[in-house]
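Re: 2-oxoglutaric acid structure - here you go.
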Amino acid sequence: MVSADFSSVPVLDYAQTTSSETKPQFIKELQHALINVGFLYLANVPVQTDELIAYIPQLFALPQEAKDKIIMRNSKHFLGYNKLGAEFTKGHTDWREQFDIATPHVCRAVEGRGDPDYWSLWGPSQWPEEEQLPGFKDAMERYLLQVQKLSYDFVGLLAEAFGLPSDALAQFYDRPEFMQHRGKIVQYPQTAEGSESQGVGPHYDAGFLTFLLQASDHKGLQVQNLTGDWIDVPPIPGTFVVNIGRALEFATQGLARATSHRVISPSGGTGPRYSVPFFQNIGLDVKLTEHVLEFPPEILKLRDARGTLGATDSVNFSEFDREPSGRVNLIGRVKSHPDVAERHYPKLFKELFPNGAPAQVSAY
Ligand SMILES: O=C(O)CCC(=O)C(=O)O
Ligand SMILES: [Fe+2]
């Protein structure tokens, strides 16, 4: 049996990390989950979620003109609102509506100074008017800061699980004030009775780590194992789902596995599914090939025992070998949102779409 052929996603107890008696067990389970599954549930995390979850239906219930006021096309930083049907994955429409809202960041790029274009990828979020949704901005900012802290602490544990000092991956981040991580609040509408539709098609995440809050009790998230079977990742109350992005897979020489995943829309009569992913980035100027980690041979053996990762249904992700991570990221965003690019990155838009905007936009 190939050990990577998992049939469920493991549940890890984050509370075990606070005692030296239970931490080794956590590290052992983490090592297995990272190498063989690429997905895990994390229970007992120090993040308050109730306040944010309560706001989500109200956010989507805002009048359409309030949402359109903060449409992503306004933002050079690809932050803001996207209406239903704005993205495609694997040639099919993704049936979801979403707000991209990121951690606080002051954009470093200065117009006309010749800064790299990808420095403009990060910047301030767009928010609904305070009086239309009182307290939402504060609640979301508080939430993002808590998940940001969790994500940095988790990276330390991940390094330990791979036999490295806990700060071994610090080299992939910029100074904290120069970092930005991206959150999204997503609504997947229910489909007509008896029909199935793509919430989001098969894909890998691009960055380092994703921390996903499943904010309603719908099934729908699925991950793909080596045989190609789709495994359900149903919501477990009080947990986050953590998964690995392509950049971390590359940086760890394939030790941490990026796993293909998708969302099936909720069926008719069950109401919309809500989720809040948080994508942890690495520094914009980091070139992954310039940061080679030295893993102990016994850890590398665990990767080799897993076997090679075969083809999946997912579209493949970017090349991290040549370009700074920000550039790789920017190209991904331009392909997903050509309307934003046409307005804010006209030169890059022309390079990527010499014949004008494509009829179908690829989200991944
Ligand atoms: O909504 C979810 O459960 C997953 C979303 C996802 O995979 C993504 O946006 O990258
Ligand atoms: Fe994803």
